Amino acid sequence: MIEKKLKISTGEEIFIYDNVFTSSESSHIQNLIEGSYFKLGTRSYNSVNSNQTTFFQSKYNLDDVEKIGFKNNLNYMSIFNKHLKNYNRKINTWVNASTYLTDYRFHVDKTEVEGGLTQMYYANEKWDDNWGGETIFKNKNDEVEIAVSYKPNRIVIFDSHISHKPTNLSVKADMYRFILVTQFE
């Protein structure tokens, strides 16, 4: 497992972990995600009639999260104990499935006052850098400052109040961009 820490100029930290799971564990996770029930979802509105922020989403309950098996992996438990053990996992864990037609907006998962951490797992087993899908982060001055490449088997953890969004995918991307998100408060 490879660990990196990036720091935004306004002080916020982003933690990146690569090669967290074995190849068979990573394959198991992608298979579970691909077999999930996806429906049209939207982050900002209650209606899917807005073509600006609508995408495919699968919401996970506690049983679904247990089936993924994160806590059976020693690398993940090391990450969990370092960052997340003092937080409660929110009930809403989900997977977003993006295509080149998905148009995301900058957003925060929680306000700074609410606090919390966001964990993202990049779930695709195969991804070409030319397909895009990086997660970009803004500093408190509303300037884009960090881009985290979408790499298979990567976990990214950051304060939920950091503004972020994925970049658009290339029309040449031959699959969905799957990202498993869990929030901790």
Descriptive labels:
3 helices, 16% helix, globular, 3-stranded antiparallel β-sheet, 185 residues, 8-stranded antiparallel β-sheet, alpha+beta
Please tell me about this protein's structure.
The protein is α+β, with helices and mostly antiparallel strands. Helices cover 16% and strands 35% of the residues. The chain has 3 helices and 11 strands. The strands form 2 sheets. An 8-stranded antiparallel sheet has the order 1-2-9-6-11-5-4-3. About 4% of the residues have low confidence.
Please identify the structural class as seen in this structure.
Answer: alpha+beta
How many distinct helices?
A: 3
Order of strands across the main sheet: 1-2-9-6-11-5-4-3
Largest beta-sheet characterization:
8 strands, antiparallel
How do the helices and strands follow one another from N- to C-terminus?
EEHEEHHEEEEEEE
- Globally, the shape reads globular
The count of β-strands is 11
Mean pLDDT across every amino acid position:
89
Low-pLDDT residue intervals, each spanning 5 or more residues:
44-51
Radius of gyration: 16 Å
Termini separation comes to: 26 Å
Task: Describe the structure in brief.
This protein has 185 residues and is α+β, with helices and mostly antiparallel strands.
Which helices and strands, and how do they pair?
Elements: E1 2-7, E2 13-18, H1 23-34, E3 39-42, E4 54-60, H2 62-68, H3 74-84, E5 89-98, E6 117-122, E7 135-138, E8 144-148, E9 154-159, E10 164-166, E11 177-184
Antiparallel strand pairs: 1-2, 2-9, 3-4, 4-5, 5-11, 6-9, 6-11, 7-8, 7-10
